[in-house]
Design brief:
- This protein is an alpha+beta fold.
- It has 8 helices and 16 strands.
Length: 329
C-alpha cells in the first residue's frame, strides 16, 4: 500500500505553503544535542570517508574556545512531549553538538514533513542522520576539513544498517578546527557568521524550485527508481571555509528561523552575546522565531519570498525551529 501511495504522490518532498495560525502555548526547549572575512568556497567529488580517516591535530595554543548552545520549538506536539532534551530532536528537526579533542562539530537536519501523511515519522530520518554524524565525530572517524564526507559517511551508514528509516531531510554541518570553520550545507537550513555586530558570511540556500530544498532521501527498498522524488547526493552540498576570530558569533539553524526572522533582527538580538549569555540569547532568538511564525500580520522573509514567486502566503510560517548558537571565545 505504501508503495502505491508513494508512486502517486509526485514530489512528496515539496513543502506545503501555509498561512499562520494561533499559538497555543510556549514550549521552550533547550536540548543537550547528543553531546570582512575571506571565504573560500570549495567543491569536491565525495569519496567514502571510511578509507580516509584523519585524526584532528589541533593544539591547545591554536584552538579557540568554543561555547555552543541549542534551543528549539516543535511546530506542534503531535508526538506528545518532545524528547529534545535527551535526544536532540525538535519535532521533525534534529541536531547534534559533538567534540573530538580540540575540534568542535555541530549540525542540523530538517526532516521533510510530507512523509507523515503516508504513515512515516519524518524525524526518524533526520534524527538518525544526526546521531550517526555525532557518533562518527566521537570516534574520530572524520576529516576536519571535509564536513561533506562526514555527511556522506553518516548517510551511507543510515542506508546500510538496520533499522533503515524511510524519509528525507536537509543537512548542514559545521566543523571548527583550530582557527578555521569548515561547512557543508545541503538544502535550506544554513548558518551565518557575525563579527563586531555585522554579518560577514551567510551560507547559500540550495533549492530545486521555490520551497523544494535539496535533501538526502531514502525510499522504501521495494521502490524501483526515484523518478518524481527529490533526492540529492551528499557531494552536491555547498562547501565553504573561513577563518574565525575571538568574539565571532555563529548561528546555525533550520529554516524555521530563516523563514521567520530577518537577518537584521538576528543581528540586533545577538549584538551583545557573552560567554555567560549564549544559552539565554539562543532561547530568546528561538522565542522570537516562534512568536513571528504564528503572527498572521507579519511580513516574514518566507512571505516575501513567496510573493516573488507569485504565491500569496501572508504572515509567518509555522514550522519546527532549531537553533544552535556558537560563540568563539
Amino acid at each position: 500500500m505504501l508503495r502505491k501511495q508513494i508512486f502517486t504522490c509526485g514530489r512528496l518532498a515539496f513543502r506545503a505553503v501555509v498561512s499562520a495560525g494561533v499559538i497555543d502555548s510556549q514550549q521552550l526547549l533547550t536540548p543537550d544535542c547528543h553531546p570582512q572575512a575571506s571565504v573560500a568556497p570549495r567543491k569536491y567529488a565525495t569519496t567514502s570517508s571510511s578509507s580516509a580517516k584523519e585524526t584532528p591535530t589541533a593544539t591547545p595554543s591554536s584552538s579557540p574556545s568554543v561555547i555552543s548552545s541549542c534551543c528549539g520549538f516543535p511546530k506542534d506536539m503531535v508526538k506528545g512531549p518532545s524528547t529534545v532534551r535527551d535526544q536532540g530532536v525538535v519535532g521533525e528537526d534534529a541536531c547534534f553538538i559533538a567534540r573530538y579533542r580540540q575540534t568542535h562539530v555541530v549540525g542540523v537536519a530538517d526532516g521533510v514533513g510530507g512523509w507523515r501523511k503516508y504513515g512515516i515519522d519524518p524525524s526518524e530520518f533526520s534524527d538518525g542522520l544526526m546521531k550517526r554524524c555525532s557518533d562518527l565525530v566521537a570516534s574520530g572517524d572524520f576529516i576536519p576539513s571535509r564536513p561533506d564526507l562526514l555527511i556522506a559517511k553518516a548517510f551511507e551508514e543510515l542506508a546500510s544498517h538496520p533499522p533503515r528509516p524511510i524519509g528525507s531531510s536537509t543537512a548542514c554541518v559545521l566543523i571548527i578546527d583550530q582557527d578555521t570553520l569548515y561547512s557543508a550545507n545541503l538544502g535550506d537550513s544554513g548558518y551565518l557568521v557575525m563579527r563586531k555586530g555585522r554579518v560577514i558570511y551567510r551560507s547559500n540556500e540550495q533549492t530545486h524550485y521555490f520551497n523544494a530544498p535539496f535533501q538526502l532521501c531514502l525510499l522504501p527498498e521495494d521502490v524501483e527508481g526515484s523518478q518524481g522524488f527529490i533526492g540529492d547526493a551528499p557531494e552536491t552540498a555547498d562547501l565553504a571555509s573561513l577563518k574565525v576570530e575571538s568574539g565571532d558569533i555563529i548561528v546555525l539553524a533550520t529554516d524555521g528561523l530563516w523563514d521567520n526572522v530577518s537577518e537584521q533582527l538576528i543581528v540586533e538580538q545577538l549584538s551583545d552575546v557573552k560567554a555567560d549569555t549564549v544559552q539565554s540569547k539562543c532561547n530568546a532568538l528561538a522565542l522570537t522565531a516562534r512568536r513571528l511564525a504564528f503572527d498572521d500580520s507579519y511580513a516574514s522573509p518566507f512571505a516575501k519570498k513567496a510573493s516573488q514567486h507569485g504565491i500569496h502566503a501572508p504572515g509567518g510560517k509555522p514550522d519546527d525551529i532549531t537553533i544552535l548558537l556558537i560563540l568563539i571565545a
